[in-house]
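Input (structure):
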């Protein structure tokens, strides 16, 4: 099938790669404009652009989608299908409706749950036991189109958002491959979403980072895992501020929430609001490097 692909981050690369491996004619790739990075402000390519160039695919980086330029690209490429995976731009209806088979999206949640910008993070933040990917027809309303197919996976107890993103990228690529084949064969399903069950996964912010030790140990663990790699959870203990990257379950305690119970090889044990404790096992002190809590304590012992 002749496909125009639109995507930007690492998550999208797996889907583009699978379409290439399946032998589809990738007539073009839309991705976000190059962005300056680090102190030198050197322009860097998106992960999708980096991969596309290795496959000699034509790359397009329109600044806007409604000024006519993007539509002229689409018309010149004449795709039979548009596939979108974390592109980062909203497509106008004239582009969505142009291809013969329409436009479909690889979304990293079990729609209608977690429509929006950060579905993977919010599934972990909310303590969900499972999540998945949805391949859907794109519609004017955000993430509201009819679903072609879904695949489900359990969320690991210790799995953070970065690790889950990697797994869902591969699951999404697998689901996309099946969906495109079904579209080509005329066997693709079309299940309308139940709007009454929708939830919204808003963008993350630094305001979500402070740890409230009055919450349960489980909720704090979900917060830490859900905010990786950005903005990361943080806490202040013994006069020092830390980003917290990993935790482990502790034991029972009657101490007040936020009390440091122990600090040693197992990490920094802190009392939580549900009568349980949590070990901080990986952290980053202000101005320091990310490291195991035990390694940090060797040079910075905490007095209980």
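Output (sequence):
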């Amino acid at each position: 099938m002749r496909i125009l692909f639109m995507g930007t981050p690492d998550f999208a690369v797996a889907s583009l790669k699978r379409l290439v491996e399946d032998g589809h004619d990738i007539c073009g790739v839309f991705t976000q404009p190059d962005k300056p990075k680090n102190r030198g402000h050197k322009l860097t390519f998106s992960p999708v652009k980096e991969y596309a160039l290795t496959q000699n695919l034509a790359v397009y980086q329109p600044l806007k989608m409604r000024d006519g330029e993007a539509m002229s690209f689409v018309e010149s490429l004449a795709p039979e299908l548009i596939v979108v995976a974390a592109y980062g731009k909203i497509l106008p209806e004239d582009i969505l409706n142009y291809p013969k088979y329409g436009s479909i999206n690889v979304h990293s949640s079990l729609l209608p749950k977690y429509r929006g910008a950060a579905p993977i993070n919010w599934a972990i933040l909310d303590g969900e036991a499972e999540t998945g990917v949805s391949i859907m027809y794109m519609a004017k309303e955000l993430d509201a189109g009819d679903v072609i197919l879904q695949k489900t996976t359990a969320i690991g107890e210790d799995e953070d958002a970065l690790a889950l993103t990697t797994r869902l990228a591969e699951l999404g690529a697998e689901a996309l491959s099946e969906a495109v084949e079904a579209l080509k064969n005329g066997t693709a399903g079309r299940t309308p979403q139940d709007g009454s069950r929708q939830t919204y996964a808003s963008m993350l912010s630094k305001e979500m980072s402070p740890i409230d030790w009055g919450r349960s140990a489980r909720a704090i663990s979900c917060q830490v895992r859900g905010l990786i790699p950005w903005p990361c959870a943080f806490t202040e203990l013994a006069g020092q501020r830390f980003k917290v990257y990993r935790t482990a379950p502790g034991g029972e305690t009657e101490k007040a929430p936020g009390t440091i119970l122990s600090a040693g090889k197992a990490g920094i044990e802190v009392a939580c609001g549900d009568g349980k404790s949590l070990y901080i096992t990986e952290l980053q002190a202000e101005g320091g490097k990310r490291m195991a809590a035990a390694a940090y304590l060797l040079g910075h012992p905490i007095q209980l």
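Notes: Residues 161-185 form the longest helix (25 residues). Helices lie at 10-21, 47-54, 69-77, 93-96, 119-125, 161-185, 217-226, 293-299.
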